[in-house]
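Ticket closed. Logging final result for Cytochrome P450 86B1.
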Amino acid sequence: MNNVTANMSSDEGVVGNFVSRRLFFLQYLHVLEFVVAALVFVVINSLRQRRHYGLPVWPFLGMLPSLVSGLRSDLYEWISDILCEQNGTFRFKGPWFSSLNCVVTADPRNLEHLLKSKFSVFPKGPYFRDTVRDLLGDGIFNADDETWQRQRKTASIQFHSAKFRQLTAESVLELVHARLLPVLENAVNQSISIDLQDVLLRLTFDNVCMTAFGVDPGCLRLGLPEIPFAKAFEDATEATLLRFVTPTCVWKTMRCLDLGTEKKLKKSIKGVDEFAEEVIRTRKKELSLQTEDKKQRSDLLTVFMRLKDEQGKPFSDKFLRDICLNFILAGRDTSSVALSWFFWLLEKNPVVEQKILAEICKIINERDDMKNGADLKSPLIFRPEEIKKMDYLKASLSEALRLYPSVPVDHKEVVEDDTFPDGTLLKKGTKVIYAIYAMGRMEAIWGKDCREYKPERWLRDGRYMSESAYKFTAFNGGPRLCLGKDFAYYQMKFVAASILYRYRVEVVKGHVVVPKLALTMYMKHGLKVNLIKRHESELQVYLKNNV
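Final structure:
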């Protein structure tokens, strides 16, 4: 009897356990179903918002997952695709805890509105200034209001002076013939490939340091030595850019704790400051000993050292450091990066290269000594008036800048409620990104052939014709139009003509060319090329055809 009772109790226990487990499983299943249903609802709702906003909007995270995906591929093409789908403007929504919310536009009407019509309403803004201040301080690239106006006015007078123009033209000539061509000839003689982007960056870096600081760092010479200041400056610009795609609270915490990219930035800026401080200290000593009859320097640093601030006092060393570094940033990359993409595009478009060479030879043929049978083997130096005549070359460079602008995106911040011409509402404090790279890929702006490399779109009856600065914004527009635009074109044309007349540039087979995420549009892996010297017979063909 006891055994039966025990067995019955045991069976009841098993049944009870089974029932309780089943009930628990059913409760767990209900919770799981609820979670899955909620997730499906969130996913569907987030993806549905893509039709309106251009990207899925996730709870708490906003559009951050899509941004991360864009960063892992090609960010500039990613932005371009969205803008094309959204008719030129979209609103990016970042995580709720971040400062990544902004309006992104590539509409020429909006650009004219913010760069010209409502210029005072769209300054660089506190967000931009705070993000880049560690590197650029209060220099012209980062400044607003009176600080910007004072620097702009002084720099404008200097840039348009005959003395400064002569200095820049002479420095380009010297650097090309005494530095660039020997480096290229050495590569040809040794049958080695070179990183043309690196060589061009060295050229423009030496040039802009000579015009801004009055100092030749010697980056471009045989052996291509590493210059600590140049390396520190490049590392600092890369680390600074990463702040724009990192929540402000995150990078500021990293800066306080001296971690990751912020640690690298701090170290790089220290190297930049040491160089600048030494140059300023040396220049002050030179000026104190300089006599009236001695030839005066005309570099930017010396010019600003001779001026006074609004209180009638000499500018501080910090101010001098800021303005010179800003001009180095602006002057170094515009030309060298544009030339790198230009030579890459030329290799893909050999017909364009032939037309440029034909134009160069036609202009050379107009020389009196060529008419009298001058020897092609003698060193050829292009004259300023010859460079000005090279319209097809200028068109080819402009077309490269249209497709691969040196500054692919730029930033503004609205200081009062406003509305863009396309109807986009802007609340005070809204950050605005204008995507210059994307503009070159908009059919609405450049037509169905917008992705093709066609210098002819810049020519009217064989003469170069510029486009609106709000359609072609490689040199900015409005009151902030690049002061060095004319010199940049002169420098690019002189360098390009000097190389193309002597060499054919071939990209190394298998070399990958993609943009790098930086303040300016570097090629991520550089531009590895082989140089093939042009034979005299090849040049004679073009010269005879232009007789």
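The mean pLDDT is 85. No further action required.
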